[in-house]
Amino acid sequence: MTSFTRVEGRAYPLPLDNIDTDLIIPAEHLKTIGRSGLGGHAFEAIRATPGNVFDDPQYAGAPIIVALDNFGCGSSREHAAWALADMGVRAVVAASFSDIFAGNAFKNGIAAVELGCEAAEALLHAARDHTIAVDLAEMTVTSASGHLFTFAMDPFRRECLLAGIDEIALTLAFAPAISAYEQRMGI
Amino acid sequence: MSERPRTLYEKIWDAHVVARREDGTCLIYIDRHLVHEVTSPQAFEGLRAAGRKVRRPDLTLAVADHNVPTTARANGNVGPLLIEDSASATQVAALEDNIREFGVPYIDVLAAEQGIVHVVGPEQGFTLPGTTVVCGDSHTAAHGALGALAFGIGTSEVEHVLATQTLLMTLSRTLEVRVEGSLGFGVSPKDVVLAIVGRLGASGGNGHVIEYRGSTFREMSLEGRLTVANMSIEAGARSGLFAPDEKTFAYLKGRPMAPRGADWDRAVEQWRTLATDEGAAFDRSIRLDASEIPPTVTWGTSPEDIASIDGMVPDPNSFDDPAKRDSARRSLDYMGLTPGQRLQDVTVEHIFIGSCTNSRIEDLRAAAQVLQGRRRSTTIRQALVVPGSGLVKRQAEAEGLDRIFLDAGFEWREPGCSMCLAMNPDKVPPLGRCASTSNRNFVGRQGPGARTHLMSPAMAAAAAVTGRLTDVRELMGGQRLEAAA
User: Fold this and answer.
1) What's the pLDDT tens digit per position in A111-150?
2) Is the domain B298-475 a CATH 3.90.1150.10 member?
3) Quick check: B25 pLDDT over 90?
């Protein structure tokens, strides 16, 4: 896994609830057998609207997305996280996340930072004109306009993200415990 | 010694803890892993790159469903199946290569047992009460209908399960969804789950595992419970559980992969312990009265956007939350609807009866009952019935349901995910409006620009007859509808 400590830069403001993974990457693009190249298709339906944030040069290549409630709901497609990574996004800051997306983001070295509604709305406002910084070591989100928000994250996920740990290698170290469980349960 | 009363979820969780870390993260054993062609190629590739094997191929079952065309299956390029879209063909071929290389059991695309992964698992008896079941698909929640702790995972987790037969997880909170009483005439399990999603909202179940309790669910068939559990994820809950009961055992007995003989008796004895203890506490509870649930349709682009069929398209200004007002405005714009418009005046041109939510035999019976002796409206451009598996299709044909659908002007298709998600040739065209028994009405879900109204099989059939959203209770006025499905 790619490690994550801190990212700073502009953030795409997406003032929406329930951004589902079909919106992040439509099913038509799930036919790939690789993980790369999906960034150009991310948010296709939004990009089709004139004047959308993805066409605004001030946000070009932004490493952060700011959104509202339930980001990444719906389908479990990890293609959504791959698409965000492919477009250079390293952190999503939202009021809340769907459980499956938050896990998929984490596995791809993307920090999914849950701030609650009020802070997410304030940050959305700040993101329109200012840079944002997400710091996992300090557990803070700050804006160049002076906002400072602290956040919580599952300690195991935080540890893995900071160190860029390969979870499968970690689990394979438990192979004797897994075998013992299988024996005990007769499976 | 008296133990602390536990919920069904806690019992299944406790029985699957392989190891526990100090920070509370647990290594959870996975009993059953379903694999399909869309979310697995990168996982197998990861194993290959790291030189890893599939730890327990015998606990894994693969089937192709998302990409497969539902038209007649002729000789072609993926084994004997013709898939014209080359990317889809590559993905199915990659699955077939991977299952051979890693020795994973596979249901061939031309086998009678082929179908949608969440129809196949229960049907084969692969899904069993008290097991942990995963699949790289969010509708894995469906298997909770049998009392399995079942949840969707991403591709990295698919790789993790293939390599280790475990997942690293933290305990979820528990949410009791209690529904009491009898369903009214023309009201189905789909209406129940739409009502639940409407009540909880699309994020209301985040971080929770639902347990469905109450007399309505006790009376509900296994097929109905599968419909309800399936859409737990539309309220944000990764899993939705039903305590197994005599109906569950009767459903599973004799299924090809279910235990047999003395093993069966032992299994049933153990399954009977799988219920929430008296006095166990849920983190949250909601309660609905079944008699108040009407035939329901969605009007927006989130499954939480529900309304009674005798109601109207809501006015965005009627929502208190500014974000909801804004999203309702955008939804109505996308859906081409006007605030205050009567839902029954909304015309549809496409009908889809199928998906992992509503493609089982009872769903087809419910739709056929409405279509018996009726025909689709001349304004309908396409009406599809897509059985959830080859076995469902065969049974429906044995009951003569295919004739009813064909006589009503429907296309009778081969099994697959079909028009639920626009990955195969079955799509709703831009600005087309579909009465659909699937699970998601997201922007572009059934095809770019497609407009989806979610509803039950009986309601979709009724819409086919009139060419507009229709109250099945009025269409069937006086006739009796079977309660279930």
Assistant:
1) 999 999 999 999 999 999 999 999 999 999 999 999 999 9
2) no
3) yes
A-interface mutation test, from B84, B164, B239, most A Cβ less than 10 A away: B164
At the fourth CATH level, which superfamily is domain B173-243+269-291? Aconitase, Domain 2 (3.40.1060.10)
Among the partner residues A68, A76, A104, nearest to B137 by beta-carbon distance: A76
Range list of H helices, B35-82: 41-50
Q: Give the domains, in start order, of chain A with CATH numbers.
A: 6-185 (3.20.19.10)
- Could you state, in order of their start, the residue ranges of all structural domains in chain B? 8-169, 173-243+269-291, 298-475
* Test mutation, A2, A23, A31, A107, chain B, max B CBs within 10 A: A31
Closest by Cβ to A156, choosing from B21, B29, B421: B21
* Residue of B172, B302, B423 with shortest CB distance to A28: B423
* pLDDT value, residue A147: 97
Q: ipTM value, please give it.
A: 0.96
Domains B173-243+269-291 and B298-475 share a fold: no
Residues of A in contact with B235 (CB under 8 A): none
Token digits of residue B86:
């080359």
| Nearest by CB: B443 against A23, A78, A177 | A23
Strands B149-152 and B132-135, sheet pairing: parallel
* Strand residues in B165-253 grouped as ranges (E): 166-169, 173-180, 208-213, 239-241
Q: What angle do CA B92, B96, B101 make, to 5 degrees?
A: 145
Mean pLDDT of B130-135: 98
Smallest CA-to-CA distance from B31 within B172, B174, B116, B146 is with B146
Sequential DSSP letters for B258-309:
S--HHHHHHHHHHHTT-SPPTTPPPSEEEEEEGGGPPPEEE-SSSTT-EEET
- B169-199 pLDDT tens trace: 999 999 999 999 999 999 999 999 999 999 9
Q: Is the pLDDT reported for residue B484 higher than 50? A: no
Residues in chain B closer than 8 A to A85 (CB atoms): none
| pLDDT value, residue B477 | 84
Q: Is the pLDDT of residue B479 over 70?
A: no
Nearest CA in chain A to B160: A168
Which residues of chain B are within 8 Å of residue A44 when distances are taken between CB atoms? 444, 448
Pick the CATH number of B8-169 from 3.40.50.40, 3.90.470.20, 3.30.499.10, 3.40.630.10: 3.30.499.10
pLDDT tens-digit series, residues B423-438: 999 999 999 999 999 9
